[in-house]
Design a protein that fits this description.
216 residues; alpha+beta; Gyrase A, domain 2; 2 domains; two-stranded antiparallel sheet; 18% strand
Length: 216
């Protein structure tokens, strides 16, 4: 899995300016402390519209089953993925580092490693090898890529561009970084958050504080 922050637009000051425009004021008319308090006040009192103005754009490479989890978040977000109709990307797969048991308390969650990791890995490897061979054979028979891809599994890696508002990103973090979120999806969202943290002279310090203290 790979995450790259391609672009970002806006800052804490943008959020403040959007909020203060109601009074025809700007962030520069107030102290840093006053502006920081305003950002926290806006979030705590669910004044969400100012957080819709800054945007983030990522390029993400991950298995299709992780992509599907991320694509459940749609409001304020646009995504475009690599297409198996045009590109043969059947040779890259996301493999499981540790196989987990089905949770007894959750129909959709997992809980702890299974005992026979080696057997699970052998099954995974066999499926990947079979799908690679089958896909190649279909292409050799003249089958179109858009149909041949139908036999590929969910752990096939895909790439996509994710563009969303800061509000959408904060909401996604609040759900996908919880301990009960799927570990592989949590790993991608955590990498997205880390990429935002690493922006030089970070313009989103106060927003990141909110994510750290209230969302995760």
């Amino acid at each position: 899995m790979k995450v790259e922050l391609v672009n970002h637009f806006g800052s804490d000051s943008m959020i403040v300016n959007v909020a203060r425009v109601s009074y025809d004021k700007k962030a520069e008319n107030y102290s840093d402390e006053q502006n920081a308090k305003l950002i926290k006040y806006l979030w705590n009192h669910k004044h969400s519209s100012p957080f819709r103005h800054p945007t983030l754009q990522f390029r993400v490479t991950c298995p299709i089953y992780v992509e599907r989890q991320l694509f459940k978040h749609q409001v304020g977000i646009s995504v475009n993925s690599i297409s198996g109709r045009y590109v043969d990307f059947s040779d890259t797969y996301g493999t499981i580092s540790e196989w987990r048991k089905q949770s007894k308390n959750s129909k959709q969650g997992s809980d702890g490693p299974v005992a026979n990791q080696l057997a699970c890995k052998k099954i995974e490897t066999r499926v990947i090898d079979t799908c690679k061979e089958a896909y190649s054979m279909l292409l050799d028979l003249g089958v179109s890529k858009e149909q041949a891809r139908s036999i590929l599994p969910l752990n096939l890696e895909t790439s996509f561009i994710w563009t969303g508002t800061m509000l959408s990103f904060m909401h996604m973090c609040s759900l996908r970084l919880k301990p009960d979120a799927q570990a592989e999806t949590r790993s991608v969202v955590d990498a997205m958050l880390t990429a935002v943290r690493e922006v030089p002279e970070n313009p989103f310090e106060k927003v990141l504080e909110i994510i750290d203290s209230e969302l995760i």
